[in-house]
Amino acid sequence: MEYFLLTPGPLTTSPGVRGAMNEDLSTWDSDYNDRVQSIRRQLVTLATGEPGFTSVLIQGCGTGCVEATVGSVVPEDGKLLVVANGAYGLRIAEIAEYLGINHRVLDFGEVGEMKPRQIDEALRSDPYISHVVVVHCETTTGRLNPLADIAAVVKNNSCCLIVDAMSSFGGIPMDAAELGIDYLISSANKCIQGVPGFGFVIARQQALEDSKGCARSLTFDLYTQWQCMENHGGKWRFTSPAHTVLAFEQALKELAEEGGVAARYQRYCENHRVLVSGMESLGFECLLPAEEQSPIITSFYTPDHPGFEFKRFYDALKSRGFVIYPGKVSRAPCFRIGTIGHVFPENFHQLVREVQSCMYWLEPHPEKPMKATNTNNKGLSP
Predict the structure, then answer these.
(1) Residue 372 pLDDT exceeds 70
(2) In whole numbers, what is the pLDDT of the chain averaged over residues?
(3) CA dist., res. 280 & res. 278, Å (int)
(4) Chain segment 278-334, per-residue pLDDT in tens
(5) Which residue in 175, 232, 192 sits closest to 56, CA to CA?
(6) Helices 260-281 and 242-258: crossing angle, nearest 10°?
């Protein structure tokens, strides 16, 4: 059975992306490495129209790419400020702890809104902070953090800005040069709609050059990986995830055919609108206010109803072809539904109909529909 994966990644992919993997290429061959070089150039173009940027691809998962960046660009005498409001921001702090990087965590809480003024105060109070890292879309909750305001504060304090744009790059318009981003990190299996296997960093070239010798890992040495690709025509230092790269090449082509990031953003926004309006019509309540919510993934309170069990709800939707995501907020019972990938508004109209069908199925008295009201989580504070 084929499923619609309504998650923050891996995502539902197109037949074209899946089909692109039906080719075997040698990672030493110039035909393959020329395609890697083309991908690198396209990523820079997606990130900004300004000169002075480059890109480097890293084997593995998105978290590995974050670890490669943090572990490669913060010098021994530097200090990292981790600005967090969810599990993925705190994971970066855990990476810094593992790698022995001097760091401070400014934690706004997993449902908290980031306050640029407090970030500014933290930077002004600690002159040793040289680098700041922030998650753009925190998929713990689905919150879209105010990147432009945060970036302005970081730049005003002359710090290097690292942005984990894992779940937003390619799906939400942004300009790395305009924002003052030094390192922008994302992954193949997110908004560009490829498959898992590698991540990438779009970097201000001068900042990357200045990071030479800072890496705390052999495999995750961002500068050396970049130099290998630069000096050897797209060659990866170690085994390349070739089939994933071919899928990503096709995904970039499909992004351009759709109309680029702006068009994809509009589709994701419409997916999100259909989902939220439909779920609210059934009585479900969003965790976050609308103005703080991304079009990437949405957290909904679980119904305050004795007949509701998430596992049964999940299995019922899965049997109908929709795979959703459990909640990740520790202080509120939630589940999450993603709106990115090769999915369209009509799929979310159908999802809402299936949710309504599942609500009847879960109700002890099927003639009376279950309402997804929330009474025990009102006033949840950051």
Answers:
(1) no
(2) 93
(3) 5
(4) 999 999 999 999 999 999 999 999 988 877 889 999 999 999 999 999 998 888 899
(5) 232
(6) 80
Match 């037949």 to its residue by tokens: 15
Average pLDDT over residues 58-86: 98
**Residue listed under structure tokens 């030094």:** 182
Q: Let me know: does 242 contact 197? Beta carbons within 8 Å.
A: no
pLDDT tens digit sequence for 328-338: 888 889 999 99
Two structure tokens written together for 34: 């020329």
Please check whether residue 335 is in contact with residue 300, taking contact to mean a CB–CB distance below 8 angstroms.
yes
Exposure of 214 in the CB half-sphere (CA atoms within 13 A): 22
Q: Is the peptide bond before 10 cis (omega within 30 degrees of 0)?
A: yes
Q: Which residues contact 87 (CB under 8 A, 6 or more apart)?
A: 110, 140, 328
Extract the tokens encoding 137: 């879309």
Can you point out the beta strands (E) in the chain? 4-5, 53-59, 80-84, 103-107, 131-135, 137-138, 143-144, 160-164, 183-187, 198-204, 297-301, 322-323, 325-326, 334-338
For 162, the token pair is 């690292």
Q: What is the pLDDT of residues 22-66, one digit of tens each?
A: 999 998 899 999 999 999 999 999 999 999 999 999 999 999 999
pLDDT given for residue 332 in this prediction: 87
Distances from the Cα of 328 to the Cαs of 27, 290, 314, 337, in angstroms? 38, 19, 15, 12
Query: Residue 229: which H helix or E strand, with range?
Result: helix 222-231
**Residue 86 CB-density burial (10 A; 0-12 exposed, 13-18 middle, 19+ buried):** buried
Residue 114 amino acid letter: M
End-to-end CA separation in angstroms for the chain: 40
CA distance 103 to 101: 6
Q: Closest Cα partner for 250 from 18, 62, 46?
A: 18
